[in-house]
Amino acid sequence: MKQVIIIGDSIAMAYGPLVRELLTGRAEVWQPEENAGTSANVLAHLEPWALGREADLIHLNCGLHDLAIDVGDAPHRVEPDQYAENLRMIFSQLRSCTPAKLVWATITPVIDAWHQATKGFRRHEADVQHYNRVALRAVGRAVVNDLHGHVVRAGLERGICEDGVHMTEYGNRVLAEAVAAKIREVLGGRK
Asked: Hey, is 28 helix, strand or coil?
């Protein structure tokens, strides 16, 4: 059976179990128990999360934590140039140390009007779009799964919770179906 690794933030942590269900009998899906957080954190955990495991496919995203701005006039947690460098290093290591097929998932949307700095930080959709452009250049020839586009097409208000970032049950299902379909496509199966 094919081995799949899903690495990502809380968005991926929510759709991951649904992907596992959708791929039952076709692939074994593993993902870390902890939130992948920033691109720097993903880079620091590549060995236990990916390089030290057998995988036919690795589905990866990070960015919502990178582009977050802590309260005050602080810069982004990880500025775009460093984000790009981290992604280049992640994909370079993955390509050189594993035969797995690599899928990069775009950062999901933020509804600015709903997303408040209640947790001591804020995010903006304009930054999501900028970081997605940066990522698409940095990940090179990785297959891209446009999760941002899937949420937009499904309807932001229906797919995103009142916090302006996380997904509703419907949004999680939309993302899980998109991820499972992309995994089947890349591994050579039917959509």
From this structure: strand
